[in-house]
From TrEMBL:
High-level lineage: Bacteria, Pseudomonadati, Thermodesulfobacteriota, Desulfuromonadia, Desulfuromonadales
Keywords recorded for this protein, A-Z: ATP synthesis, Cell inner membrane, Cell membrane, CF(1), Hydrogen ion transport, Ion transport, Membrane, Transport
Protein's name according to its UniProt entry: ATP synthase gamma chain
Organism of this sequence: Malonomonas rubra DSM 5091
Matches recorded under Gene3D superfamilies: 3.40.1380.10, ATP synthase, gamma subunit, helix hairpin domain
Membrane topology summary: Peripheral membrane protein
Length: 289
């Protein structure tokens, strides 16, 4: 049985840990508000742009621009978005496992599937499972993601697709729903998918290109890819902060329960020690008589 000193020391250790988890929860809560506002604000623009370009892709020929061309299924690229730090529950593991599941399930459909990882934790999780498929890793860009960051990643992906290194590009990230709910989301980025015509709906939308079709497509199609990556980074960051806040809140509550149990154990051990001392005193007094 542990001594009183050992139990008291462990109580102190758990209390120190609890202070850390409470502080981390407060920091995550403060970051969550800003990250959530940014993610929610980006949704309408990203969704409208995607809708417009889906309509545009349905009306243009595949050879109008390289990003519209529907090629074979030779090689694919999956862009996985995770975090650089842990202590956020199943945030990193859930999306990393989905990446592994998707690649395993589609190995027969594609000749080869490469993996581009954003975030250190995704790399750590998958390097022993899919190390041969990881072609690039970006670190320390998820917390303060800017549009310029998404622009650099998007341009790299667009160049690779235009050079026909890949026939399809997917992005995989945690979409923010609430502080306790993050939805693992897989989207096809390239080629840009044409919008399916609804049954009975009239095809009334048409576009006028200024100054010309080639110039407009060359400017707006890569921008859609950049916006999709930017939205993914914002959603992933908000989800990370929400998951971390929830995980630290759970850890703090578990620490409180552990402190209660250890305190009870300490009091029982102390009571047993006092009773033992009293018995020894009484026994000594009786032996003197």
């Amino acid at each position: 049985m542990p001594s009183l000193k050992d139990i008291k020391k462990r109580i102190g250790s758990v209390k120190n840990t609890q202070q850390i988890t409470k502080a981390m929860k407060m920091v995550a809560a403060a970051k969550l508000r800003r990250a959530q506002d940014a993610a929610v604000a980006a949704r309408p623009y990203a969704e409208k742009l995607q809708s417009v370009l889906s309509n545009l892709a349905a009306r243009e020929e595949a050879d109008a621009h390289p990003l519209l061309s529907q090629r074979g299924t030779s090689r694919a690229l999956v862009v996985l978005m995770t975090a650089d730090r842990g202590l956020c529950g199943g945030f990193n593991a859930n999306v990393s496992k989905e990446a592994e599941r998707f690649i395993r399930a589609n190995e027969q459909g594609f000749d080869d599937i490469d993996l581009m990882i954003i975030g250190r934790k995704g790399r750590d999780f998958l390097k022993s499972r899919l190390g041969d498929k990881i072609v690039k890793v970006y670190e320390n860009i998820t917390t303060d993601a800017t549009y310029k960051t998404a622009q650099l990643i998007g341009q790299e992906v667009v160049d690779a697709y235009s050079e026909e290194k890949y026939d399809a590009v997917f992005v995989l990230y945690n979409a923010f729903q609430s502080a306790i709910v993050q939805n693992v989301t897989l989207e096809q980025v390239l080629p840009i998918q044409p919008k399916e015509a609804e049954e009975g709906a009239e095809d009334s939308i048409d576009y006028i290109y200024e100054p010309d079709k080639a110039g407009v497509l060359s400017d707006i199609l890569p921008k859609m890819v950049e916006v999709q990556f930017f939205r993914g980074l914002l959603e992933s960051n908000a989800s990370e902060q929400g998951a971390r806040m929830s995980a630290m809140d759970s850890a703090s509550r578990n620490a409180s329960e552990m402190i209660g149990k250890l305190t009870l154990q300490y009091n029982r051990a102390r009571q047993a020690a006092i009773t033992k001392e009293l018995m020894e005193i009484i026994s000594g007094a009786e032996s003197i008589k």
